[in-house]
Amino acid sequence: MIPAPPCTDRQRGSVDGVDFGLRELMAVREIVHAFLTADRPEEVFQFALDRVSPLVGATFACVYLVDGASELMRLVAAHNWPERFAQFLGEMRVRVGFGPSGEAASERRAIEVPDVFADIEGLTYLRGVKLSALLSAEKTATEYALARSGRPSVTVRFDAVDAESVGAFIFLYEFVTSLMGELLDVDAYDQPAVELGKQAAFARLGRAGHEGLSKALQAAAETDEEYLV
Q1: Quick check: pTM over 0.85?
Q2: Per-residue pLDDT tens for 79-107?
Q3: Most buried by CB count within 10 Å: which residue of 46, 81, 168, 184?
């Protein structure tokens, strides 16, 4: 058990506010305190993961360490994993990769990742840009292009990214698809290519009653050497 560090009234009043920088500093302070008071390293990893994950917006996260002299990493901390997955995390062993992260883990040293966009003309504007910023820019650009073309668009905002919200969103569009099909006199469930794809998947997996299609699949999968490059 890691005791919480003493907290001033000013700090208590700011944790749930908008001062993100102060929240980061408080998290660092608590983690440093944990390093000084924890009985086992695993306690520190778990404590740090539980503090940092909400700050960076991670729904769930985990920490793996290299297991002795092997190239495999074992779980030492996990945050907010769904129960159906959590039971398997402790049994997993992750192999160290060959990229910068794997090199840092295997050699126990900091690795400087090269600036891959530094010398590529036309891509320098992407230097230091996060994927979230790129997706946001694409969203805004799409809204602009649709508006200029006289087409409507809709933005759906989630109160929380969880199973209930995502499930409700998927159901909404399933329902809208059926409703619009009725209004436009289009059979939303009569999609020959989609249905054939389902039947082909059944045949590929050996479902009874699809033996004939299975033979057709095998024939279609044969490679024509003439088109190999």
Answers
A1: no
A2: 888 887 877 887 877 777 777 777 777 77
A3: 46
